[in-house]
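Per reviewer request, we include the raw input and output of the structure prediction for the construct analysed in the revised manuscript.
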Amino acid sequence: MKKFVITFLVTLTLFFVGISETNHTYAATNYSVKASAIAQKYVGVPYKWGGISPSGFDCSGLVYYSFKQAGKPLPRTAGEMYRKGTAVSKKNLRNGDLVFFNTNKKGASHVGIYIGSNKFVHSSSKGVRIDSMSNPYWSKVYHGSKRM
């Protein structure tokens, strides 16, 4: 009987730990998916150096704003964002993952949000837009991806 009770309690504990971990993963994914949808609403907004509002965004400003609106604050710059999260391979990207690019030979200097179908939303000199990860330029300067 004692062995049964101990086994039952261990099983019950593992069950609740599993649920807890699942909810944590779901919550992280949920923030990322919300941030992705928020960023896409601003396609067409002009580029603004240091911009963190719908009147104008720079690349990290768009990501910062979108995640903040989704309830998940992130650091302000692409480099700081790159130091957070969990690395994810290009082939395993999910909606809401951050994609980083080395545009100035100094590491992660540009960031966008992966939206699925090999595309990402970001702010560049042309404003907030959606581009393909296969675009020759973005493919060449791709630096890595993170799941927040």
